[in-house]
Automatic annotation (TrEMBL), chain A:
<comment type="similarity">
    <text>Belongs to the binding-protein-dependent transport system permease family.</text>
</comment>
<feature type="transmembrane region" description="Helical">
    <location>
        <begin position="176"/>
        <end position="197"/>
    </location>
</feature>
<dbReference type="GO" id="GO:0055085">
    <property type="term" value="P:transmembrane transport"/>
</dbReference>
<keyword id="KW-0472">Membrane</keyword>
<dbReference type="InterPro" id="IPR000515">
    <property type="entry name" value="MetI-like"/>
</dbReference>
<dbReference type="Pfam" id="PF00528">
    <property type="entry name" value="BPD_transp_1"/>
</dbReference>
<dbReference type="InterPro" id="IPR051393">
    <property type="entry name" value="ABC_transporter_permease"/>
</dbReference>
<feature type="transmembrane region" description="Helical">
    <location>
        <begin position="235"/>
        <end position="255"/>
    </location>
</feature>
<feature type="transmembrane region" description="Helical">
    <location>
        <begin position="32"/>
        <end position="57"/>
    </location>
</feature>
<feature type="domain" description="ABC transmembrane type-1">
    <location>
        <begin position="89"/>
        <end position="303"/>
    </location>
</feature>
<keyword id="KW-0813">Transport</keyword>
<feature type="transmembrane region" description="Helical">
    <location>
        <begin position="284"/>
        <end position="307"/>
    </location>
</feature>
<dbReference type="InterPro" id="IPR035906">
    <property type="entry name" value="MetI-like_sf"/>
</dbReference>
<protein>
    <submittedName>
        <fullName>Sugar ABC transporter permease</fullName>
    </submittedName>
</protein>
<feature type="transmembrane region" description="Helical">
    <location>
        <begin position="126"/>
        <end position="146"/>
    </location>
</feature>
<keyword id="KW-1133">Transmembrane helix</keyword>
<feature type="transmembrane region" description="Helical">
    <location>
        <begin position="88"/>
        <end position="114"/>
    </location>
</feature>
Length: 313, 288
């Protein structure tokens, strides 16, 4: 779930008019600082210090146990020639490229289904959203129990429906393993996209829709050419969130595939984890992390820029 | 709004599916999404022997609580993990809400030099995900003696939940009319009494922050996997890996399913009770 808030777009706070215009005494300022200091101290130790340290570590040979040595940019030159690192990046991008559009399209279809108040609507929205509230680890164990080829009821269901001859072992073939993880990810996250896009649909005024209908526009055209452009903030939010979540995917791969079969499903974060805590090369892992962070910031930054441009025009 | 079902469907314009079509499709969607959870819930009530049967049964032949009582066996460690997860969740929620409440009050009410810059920097921290900082974080926490410690997990979760929490609670403060603060100041109420008097108005922000922190803490897998070494410290998501790792062929599927249900149940219940705060938190995150 730690992925949930990591991709958020930093919004601007609504400013309160000058009710506080009376002059602040020095004592007031000190009170303000004192109130903020505990939170800042924690952020300094658990966030700022590690962030700064990761730069130092990335320039060092820094084993989990033992002597550290400064090695300059060795980790970075190694990284750009490392086929395993490249494979992890390519796989992660591919995973995000599959999951993000699928989630957005499915989320939009679901949003259209549940956008209006009807009897039983709460039940439907809740059923789709509940998987968002459970953890990725839980969702993965859940599907492991359902899809294993010996005792999983999903295998029996597919056989009973005549779709497969006998229960399939999803984790033995790279494409099936990937498909399973995509399905779990979709099930677990599409409710989020649904609610975000539903909020977007609600933000488009009803008069706009009526006017377009009077002009003879069909429902699909109204959606594609009028509503979607008007709700671009919501679309951008859902897209960024889903994409960042996919870029940072780890739990579902670790639990379901273990990176297999034959190392075909190792994501960027999984590679960082293996490098740091299985191979014990913390310095090299830090270099990987920083390069990956730059990539993530570019993606988020591009998204913010798009959003801002959307507001002006 | 085509609000109630009794409104004649189809009159409000062509293209809107009829009430029955909608109900059918919506019911299928709801069943599709709920079925994995329901199937595992049913599976958790099989006897251990039935849970290991091939081909599996859809519904338990003879419902049994044995998988739940087996959670208490110390070898599985699930019982201890429930306690650890509860401690981590409670600790993270309390620490996050208290620190975020104080900071939000400081940022909103007592602007000091550079306070806006600090606030913006704090929000920017949201852009650096925890997963990116694992190796240095491990080194820092190890130096502080906080690896293999539930306190360490609580501090990590709190830190990464703080920016969002400060943001939503500050929004609650910003919505309070200035006269209320002035009235409190005239009364000469101290900090503690002022906050207590304002608490009802901050309710939505506080619950939203607590809710997101609970889900993050209870479900955290990656941080717990890296930072916790001993089984008696494991939280629920981590202890379940011990049930499936090792020989994959000899997984106790019944135990795994009851373990998953125990992990999932608090999230489902809390979400259903407090979902309006979850959605309002999402809207805040979207920058509405």
């Amino acid at each position: 779930m730690s992925g949930l808030l990591t991709g958020g777009v930093a919004p601007s706070i609504r400013r309160r008019p000058a009710a506080t215009s009376r002059r602040r005494s020095a004592r007031d300022r000190r009170t303000g600082l004192l109130l903020v200091v505990p939170a800042l101290a924690l952020v300094a130790v658990v966030f700022v210090a590690p962030l700064a340290l990761s730069v130092v570590m990335s320039l060092s040979d820094w084993p989990l146990l033992g002597e550290r040595t400064f090695v300059g940019f060795d980790n970075y030159t190694r990284l750009f020639a490392d086929p395993q690192a490249r494979q992890a990046i390519v796989f992660t991008l591919g995973f995000a490229a599959v999951v993000t559009p699928l989630t957005l399209v499915a989320g939009l279809v679901l949003a259209l289904l549940v956008q209006h108040r009807r009897r039983g609507i709460g039940l439907v929205r809740t059923a789709v959203f509940v998987p968002v509230a459970i953890g990725f680890a839980s969702a993965s164990y859940l599907f492991l129990a359902l899809t294993n080829s010996s005792t999983g009821v999903f295998g029996r269901l597919l056989t009973d429906l005549g779709i497969t001859e006998r229960p399939v072992d999803w984790l033995l073939r790279p494409r099936l393993a990937m498909l399973l993880v995509v399905l779990v990810t979709l099930w677990k996250t599409v409710g989020f996209a649904m609610i975000a896009l539903m909020n977007g649909l609600h933000s488009v005024g009803r008069d706009v829709e009526e006017a377009a209908r009077v002009d003879g526009a069909g429902a699909l055209r109204i959606l594609l050419q009028i509503k979607l452009p008007m709700m671009r903030d919501s679309v951008a939010f859902a897209a960024t969130f889903t994409a960042i979540g996919a870029f940072l995917a780890f739990d579902q791969f670790y639990i379901l595939t273990g990176g297999g079969p034959s190392n075909s499903t190792i994501t960027a974060v999984y590679r960082i984890y293996n490098t740091a805590f299985i191979q014990g090369q913390l310095g090299y892992a830090a270099a990987m992390s920083l390069v990956f962070l730059v990539f993530l910031l570019i993606v988020t930054g591009a998204q913010l820029a798009l959003l801002r441009r959307g507001r002006v025009t | 709004m085509s609000g109630v079902v009794s409104a004649p469907a189809g009159l409000r314009g062509a293209g809107r599916p009829g009430a029955w079509t909608w109900a059918l499709v919506a019911a299928m969607v709801a069943v599709l999404f709920a079925s994995p959870l329901i199937a595992v819930l049913l599976g958790s009530f099989k006897s251990p022997a039935e849970a290991a049967r091939t081909p599996p049964t859809y519904v338990p032949d003879e419902p049994s609580l044995r998988n739940y009582t087996a959670l208490q066996d110390s070898s599985a460690g699930v019982w201890t993990a429930i306690g650890n997860s509860a401690l981590v969740a409670a600790g993270s929620v309390v620490l996050t809400v208290v620190l975020a409440l104080l900071a939000a009050y400081g940022f909103e009410r007592y602007r000091f030099r550079g306070s806006e810059a600090v606030f913006v920097l704090m929000l920017a921290a949201i852009m650096v995900p925890f997963q990116i900082l694992v190796s240095p974080l491990y080194v820092v926490l190890n130096a502080l003696g906080l690896t293999n410690s539930l306190v360490g997990i609580v501090l990590v979760i709190t830190t990464f939940q703080l920016p969002f929490s400060v943001f939503v609670i500050r929004n609650s403060f910003a919505a309070i009319p200035g006269e209320l603060y002035e009235a409190a100041a005239v009364d000469g109420a101290g900090l503690w009494r002022t906050l207590r008097a304002l608490a009802p108005l901050l309710r939505a922000g506080l619950i939203t922050a607590a809710l997101f922190t609970f889900f993050a803490a209870w479900n955290e897998f990656f941080a717990a996997l890296i930072l916790l070494a001993d089984q008696d410290r494991f939280t629920l998501p981590v202890v379940l890996t011990t049930l499936i790792s090792g020989a994959r062929g000899s997984v106790d599927w019944g135990l795994l399913q009851s373990g998953v249900i125990v992990t999932v149940l608090p999230c489902v219940v809390i979400f259903i009770v407090l979902q309006k705060y979850y959605v309002s938190g999402m809207t805040a995150g979207a920058g509405k």
